[in-house]
Design goal:
By secondary structure, the protein is an alpha/beta fold. It folds into 2 domains: 198 residues, UDP-n-acetylglucosamine1-carboxyvinyl-transferase, Chain, CATH 3.65.10.10; 214 residues, UDP-n-acetylglucosamine1-carboxyvinyl-transferase, Chain. It has 12 helices and 23 strands. The protein has a 4-stranded mixed sheet with strand order 2-15-17-16, covered by helices on one side. A 4-stranded mixed sheet has the order 4-5-3-14, covered by helices on one side. A 4-stranded mixed sheet has the order 6-7-9-8. Helix 11 links the parallel strand 22 and strand 23. The protein is globular.
């Protein structure tokens, strides 16, 4: 599917943030590992979350769709996995990483694989942690990359996790730690990519009665014996997805309100709003909404986005229309996403008239006279959505393979259409 975008603005629009993908993945896992029936309300149903849903079902977890939610029949950590089970994570990196540790509860080997790109995304540090806790992780292709066969158990103990590429390595271990035979202590040394996602993980765990003690992002301890309990859990709205609507206000001018957002959320991508304020936008919020308004006059900024990885591309396209350059640092781990997002963003922006350069863990955007063209995001949903916002600011931009947004935000194009923007 291709989507042609025309110039729009100034805007006066109201959107609804979809449920959080990150919270949905984690809530499904915690509910599956609880002993009894949980209700997960307002989950995100997307390509990625369905991978986790179906994988848990293949491990013996019964999940039923009900109005506004999913009923998850947890098994208290005793999974029922068939012999020779193969889980295809497709393009879902979160599913791949979280389920690697869950597989330790199967009692027999489980193979996890995925798309061609998934086989290029490293998981070596997670495999090392699994081995340190009593499990086995055998790579079936290139060392350190999927496919991987996981077996053994989670005995517990102390483990050091290299989280410089992904905080999901830590989240994966933490999520299964309540089922270990002894206490689990996870140490990172303090260097963690996207650390705010560990906050999301711990928040979900505690909602299902698990206990996590911590020393910042350096050390986490999960005591044995404090297992998950069934819960009624509501998934909050997603700031990563809402960022595209906020960017529309910045780029096109006018006012945009996004509902279904928790103004006090621990989601790291909430910091995107502070970036827009620094660039010249006005931000207001209420009990469940956030409003961004702008006259379209933007200034470049210098910002570290280590904890806001999924809004980096969105900020890059906003920066391409600012007055003066923008430098975004702390984002080297974006090379290991659905695409090399640093290289792709620089390439695509340069092709549309802006200056863009990647150096080390940073990307610098220099505004230029922008023009139309075509964007092929491949299978990277965030590339498609971020450049869609730019297309509505510049006009005459076509997004090819636009259906890839179903990975995290199936209703993206529909919401734009309801506002008359596509």
């Amino acid at each position: 599917m291709d989507v042609a975008l025309r110039k729009a603005g100034p805007l006066d629009c109201t959107f609804v943030a979809p449920p959080s993908k990150s919270y949905t993945h984690r809530a499904l896992v915690a509910a599956a590992l609880a002993d009894g029936e949980s209700l997960v309300l307002d989950p995100l149903v997307s390509d990625d979350t369905e991978v986790t849903w179906r994988a848990l079902e293949s491990m013996g977890i019964s999940i039923e769709g009900v109005e506004n939610g999913l009923v998850v029949h947890g098994r208290g950590g005793t999974l029922s996995c068939p012999g020779g089970l193969v889980i295809d994570a497709g393009e879902s990196g979160t599913s791949m990483r979280l389920l690697c540790s869950v597989a330790l509860l199967c009692g027999r080997p489980v193979t996890l694989t995925g798309s061609r790109r998934m086989k290029e995304r490293p998981i070596g540090p997670l495999a090392a942690a699994i081995r340190a806790l009593g499990g086995e992780a055998e790579f079936l292709g290139a060392e350190g990359y999927p496919p991987v066969r996981v077996s053994g158990t989670i005995a517990g103990g102390d483990v050091w996790v290299d989280a410089g590429m992904s905080s999901q390595f830590v989240s994966s271990i933490l999520l299964v730690a309540p089922l270990a035979r002894s206490d689990v202590s996870v140490m990172t040394g303090g260097s963690v990519a996207s650390p705010s996602y560990i906050d999301v993980t711990i928040s979900v765990m505690e909602s299902f009665s698990a206990r996590v003690e911590r020393d910042g992002y350096r050390k986490f301890r999960v005591p044995a014996g404090r297992r998950y309990r069934p819960a009624r859990y509501r998934v909050e709205g997603d700031y990563s997805s809402a960022s595209y609507f906020f960017a529309l206000a910045a780029l096109c001018g006018g006012r945009v309100v996004v509902r279904n957002l928790n103004p006090n959320s621990c989601q790291g991508d909430r910091a995107f709003l502070a970036c827009l304020e620094r660039m010249g936008c006005t931000v207001k919020s209420g009990t469940d909404w956030v409003e961004v308004s702008s006259d379209g006059d933007l200034e470049g900024i210098d910002v570290d986005m280590t904890s806001s990885p999924d809004t980096v591309q969105t900020l890059c396209v906003v920066a391409s229309r600012a007055r003066g350059p923008t430098r975004i640092s702390g984002v080297g781990h974006l090379r290991y996403k659905e695409s090399d997002r640093l290289a792709e963003t620089a390439r695509l922006l340069s092709g549309l008239g802006a200056g863009a350069a990647v150096e080390g863990d940073s990307i610098t955007i220099v505004p230029g006279p922008m023009h139309g063209g075509e964007i092929d995001p491949g299978s990277d949903h965030r590339t498609a959505m971020s450049f869609a916002t730019l297309g509505l600011a510049t006009g005459n931009l076509k997004i090819r393979n636009a259906e890839c947004v179903s990975k995290s935000f199936p209703g993206f194009w529909e919401q734009l259409s309801m506002q008359g923007l596509v």
